[in-house]
């Protein structure tokens, strides 16, 4: 049975939702599932924009077949060939062998590399600024390298202002019927997943995203059709503003993420005490996470959101606690910058974690300001530590002015 929705009068969502996948890219937990979006335009020509993951292929094919109603498929535009969108290309080719595939040179190269059997079909290689008419609708192709793979492009329908934005403006989370962002309370129920999706999947490529956003600023976008998550037809500046923050590594809010690593609870207790101090002093936008039981994708997302980070770690065999070290490496890998960091260290006989975290932040990352004040624990937060704790909280607050 088909499951489709109208996007405009002649454009349809033909994607599918996946609640079975536990880990996106086999790394990131997606407890609310994910959608694979594809779109079918029924103009004088019939045009399919992207395909879906293999797991959603059957539903997708039923959707396309239903809407075509016996009509052939004229074009398949592949904005992004990554297998969670391109895996069903061959199934389309088997059913509609006369379809012409429009994509970039790099995408065709990668399709061959992945073993997608596209040769023998009509391939139309496009580049930045090329246009194509499908009847009433004329589209233009815009290169979007590294958003989030090198072959990516986006397609802008100049007739109605729809931007097929590939992985840009996407989100984790299954749609479950609610196709449009204005059909949900996005700021309450979706923004955390959208941020976690962006920061972990595309976060590294901020300059490339800014490049695309600058190009997008020159066209009159009425609708954003991403390959995951809701379609945007209202309040697009809200999402663009979030993207500018994320892509330039500017925090969205003044606030503190406290990430702690603790084996026996003493470093955790210090993190709690610091959070209480901050709240007592008026900064209540404070969020505590145990790195051992919080997937790092959530830590990354929160670190992109907030201006300040407290790293509280035990020393572990003369090193940083391994899970905390993993978090630091992820921050570096995703190019996170421009945060103010406070350090809490703990060691019972040879405390090293503070110096090592400081060195990592100074040497390996860009634009991180580490506060001079540091809370240093010998096993636990003893009575005599009140002044140090206070000084650290004050330093965090002072750096927010
Ligand atoms: C496996 C293991 C290795 C540790 N290695 C060190 C170390 O090299 N240097 C040190 O000063 N403390 C070391 N510690 C002690 C911890 O850094 C920390 O002081 C202690 O676990 C108390 O903090 P917690 O209650 O937050 O876990 C180690 C503890 C464990 C369990």
Automatic annotation (TrEMBL):
InterPro entries: Flavodoxin/NO_synth (IPR008254), Flavoprotein-like_sf (IPR029039), Metallo-B-lactamas (IPR001279), NADH_oxidoreductase_modular (IPR051285), ODP_dom (IPR045761), RibonucZ/Hydroxyglut_hydro (IPR036866), Rubredoxin-O_OxRdtase (IPR016440). Transmembrane segments: none annotated. This is Flavoprotein. It comes from Intestinimonas butyriciproducens. Residues 256-397 form the Flavodoxin-like domain. The keyword Transport applies. PROSITE patterns: FLAVODOXIN_LIKE (PS50902). CDD domains: flavodiiron_proteins_MBL-fold (cd07709). Keywords: Electron transport, Transport. Its cofactor is Fe cation. In the N-terminal section; belongs to the zinc metallo-hydrolase group 3 family. The keyword Electron transport applies. It comes from the Bacteria. One of its GO terms (molecular function) is oxidoreductase activity, acting on NAD(P)H. SUPFAM superfamilies: Flavoproteins, Metallo-hydrolase/oxidoreductase.
